[in-house]
Specification:
15 helices, mainly alpha
Length: about 325
């Protein structure tokens, strides 16, 4: 196991390096950039004595964009290894400071969504497998397929139209209400939770269907196994057969599907946060990327790649925890 982990860490670093290089190349090739926006603003200032092209050349030299992509990437990488990810061009604060400011919003949003997803999807998937081809199974399958098929922007628009515009139960946008600053700490917490209800419902409905179908498929395969028929033939109660014998073996394939949850918890739901204008890491990173904020965009992309590698490694280790028969060769 020790040698396996060492090999996977080395491979993960290798993938992270080339993933960062690819991300840097793509970001440098975007049609819009922070430098062009600032140069345009400064050139339009009546007091400015420089033209747009002169401002472009000066700002490119200041930010090191006058170098080629490869030299620029290795310059960024050298600073990143030292823990210096630079200052965000768009937010005008250090990248790590802005990240620590908004990450908790995405963590709360995604952790709550994940817990709700588990408590809904896994029991419903097991129930659908136990009642295969019944009305219950068809209803659960219809709900799951509907959640899988609906685009994020469409579902979010429907929820906002019904609950925010028609019923007026929630606000359309934002993380806090207009009187948030005058509230007590407890009321502020309730206010934030109130504004996260619709985003959590959106994320839950989009993600619960896939996990539900995955659980149902794996449970059906396990329930048709010989040892399950033997357990039933011995007269064991159905709850014992399902919860003790079948469900444990269903967890093995589920571990694979759960490997992507860790990156989602810490990198935010970009589309959902943007639609609801929740200032989490996903929304903030989206704003940085479309404005050509290379320091913040690079930090976000590399952070996502690293989390993905850690998640896959933990998934492989969990195989041996869930099923002792699995050993690393």
């Amino acid at each position: 196991m020790k040698n396996f982990i060492i090999r996977r860490v080395i491979l993960g670093l290798f993938i992270t390096f080339f993933g960062a290089m690819l991300s840097y190349t793509v970001i440098r090739s975007l049609p819009t950039s922070y430098v062009e926006s600032v140069a345009r603003q400064r050139a339009s200032n009546p007091l400015s004595t420089k033209t747009y092209q002169e401002w472009i050349a000066e700002l490119n030299q200041v930010y090191g964009l006058d170098k080629g992509i490869i030299p620029g990437f290795f310059g960024w990488m050298g600073n990143a290894i030292k823990g210096d990810f630079g200052e965000s061009w768009h937010y005008a604060v250090p990248v790590t400071e802005k990240f620590s400011e908004v990450i908790w919003v995405s963590m709360i949003l995604n952790v709550v969504t994940t817990l709700v997803q588990f408590f809904i999807a896994i029991p419903l998937g097991i129930l659908a497998a136990r009642k295969q081809y019944s009305r219950t199974d068809y209803a659960i399958t219809f709900f799951a397929l509907m959640g899988i098929s609906l685009p994020t922007f469409f579902l979010a628009t429907i929820l906002k139209y019904v609950f925010a515009i028609k019923l007026q139960w929630f606000d359309l946008y934002g993380l806090t209400g207009r009187f948030h600053s005058t509230m007590t700490p407890f009321q502020q917490t309730v206010d934030v939770g109130y504004h996260l209800v619709l985003p959590i419902i959106t994320l839950m409905m989009l993600s619960v269907g896939g996990l539900m179908r995955y659980t149902r498929t794996n449970m059906l395969e396990v329930l048709n196994s010989d040892y399950i028929r033997t357990a039933r033939a011995k007269g064991l109660p159905e709850k014992v057969v399902i919860n003790k014998h079948a469900f444990r073996n269903t967890l093995i394939p589920l571990v694979t599907s759960l490997s992507g949850i860790l990156p989602g918890m810490f990198t935010g739901a970009m589309i959902t946060e943007t639609l609801y204008q929740i200032p989490g890491i996903g929304y903030i990173s989206y704003q940085a990327i479309i404005r050509g904020d290379i320091p913040f965009a690079m930090f976000y992309m590399v952070f996502l790649i690293l989390l993905t590698q850690v998640s896959i490694l933990l998934s492989d280790i969990l195989y041996a925890v869930v099923d002792p028969r699995i050993r690393v060769n």
